[in-house]
Amino acid sequence: ELHQREYLSNGEMVKWDGEVSEVYSPVCLPGAKGLQRKLMGSYPLATEKEAMEALTAAEKAYDNGRGEWPTMSIEGRIKCMQNFVYKMIEQRELVINLIMWEIGKSHADSTKEFDRTVEYINLTIDALKELDRRSSRFEIAEGVIAQTRRAPLGVVLCMGPFNYPLNETYTTLIPAIIMGNTILFKPPKHGTLVHYPLLKAFKESFPAGVVNTVYGRGATVTPGLMATGRINVLAFIGSSKVANDLKKRHPKINRLRAVLSLDAKNAAIVTKNADLKLAVSEIMLGALSYNGQRCTALKIVHVHKDVAEPFLQLLSEAVGKLKLGMPWVSGVNITPVAEPGKPAYLKECLDDAIAHGAQVINENGGTSAESFVFPAIVYPITRDMKLYLEEQFGPVIPVIPFESIEEPIQYQIDSPHGMQLSIFSNDGKEIAALIDPFVNLVSRVNINSQSQRGPDVFPFTGRKDSAEGTLSVSDALRSFSLRSLVAAKMN
Ligand code: G3H
Fold first, then answer.
1. Could you report the per-residue pLDDT of 77-90, keeping only the tens digit for each?
2. Which residue's CA is minimally distant from atom 8 of ligand 1?
3. Which residues contact 304 (CB under 8 A, 6 or more apart)?
4. What integer pLDDT is reported at residue 392 of this predicted model?
5. Ligand 1 and 250: CB distance under 6 A
6. Mean local confidence (pLDDT), 391-416
7. With 0-12 CB in 10 A as exposed, 13-18 as middle and 19+ as buried, what is 332?
8. Ligand 1 pocket, 116 CB below 6 A?
9. Is the CB of 419 under 6 A from ligand 1?
10. Long-range contacts of 412-416 (CB under 8 A, 24+ apart)
């Protein structure tokens, strides 16, 4: 068990002896009351007072752009970041195990998450060198010579999601830091302890006040921070509802820069010309990796009615072979779902679909025990069902038949989301004809492949309610800075 009794603020690990929040793993083990979620530890349930102190520390370190960090050379900032990476790697095994236990992600995927994050930081450093080379240059126009440079924005509030508690949080935190901003960082509720071993590395690698943590109930501490109007950038990965609520709290909402990655209902389209085997293997990965708990997961499948039967049969067979097990067991595909209320919510979705005329078509689909839910394929989905309207964020594949391609196009037009889409077809002309309508409705169209964020050098964003601003190794550097210039008249 790991009981965190300190947090990072103003360059100090501050001792905490107030209220704490207990952390339970989604993994259930035998206990006094039978199988129960394992207690993993606890963390400080800090209050608005500590959050305000952290804000003051971040502002002091920024010092209206005159602080040590925002004025440090790019080389200096890169050195600090490299130092952080060395220290981070020392904590590798512990952090991987914390990811696995705290959110139930398989050991293999938790390891990938850690290593991908280290790679992300190294790529960010390379991208910054390149950006600096290209943007710190002299430009001459109409008798004026100007030097342009990427300048920081101020105090950034960073909040990440539970499903990639380390990686996704760092996709905003790292570029925000390295561009010279100062940070308030609130770890996700599920995935808080994951960050604890790395706080000392932040403390030792960056000047005091550059990174400050904010603990406590999100509903208590973050609205107050936004309401001060002293947050310059909101970097949030999570639900659209929470993001909209936080933005509205800011008294100068028009001056707030928001970098957001939010809800999504990514669709796959299987045309009658698709290679069904390929479609099945990609859709299964896209829909069920990490139990479907990914913003980029495929969350609805449109299949042409002429190939619906063989497609569903192949998909059921493939899903039937998936291995369900504890996250530390090698080769498992389905692990406990992270959020305590998720099995009940998914059951509600399945009951609702059945009540409206659909069926769970695969053996054992939707059966659950403790925090395990076996993947369900649900068919045929209609417009009145929760599985059509809501982002299930779990191991359920809703399938909807179509006759004309206009139907999935109309689905995307009507959708409040616009993150990704996958098209499966072996007909080049058909694919070409679909790219234009869809590329203007979502932010990434995948051809004969699942939806995903990576490779991390690609821009990651979304349309409508799915995102604001752009993340990725290099785009994020722009998102957390301003291209400003020093201009002089030439005589
Ligand atoms: O939850 C959203 C993540 O950005 C998904 O990332 O596509 O690499 O799994 P991924």
1. 999 999 999 999 99
2. 453
3. 270, 271, 272, 274, 401, 402, 403
4. 98
5. no
6. 98
7. middle
8. no
9. no
10. 412/267, 412/438, 412/441, 412/442, 413/441, 415/265, 415/267, 415/464, 416/263, 416/464, 416/465
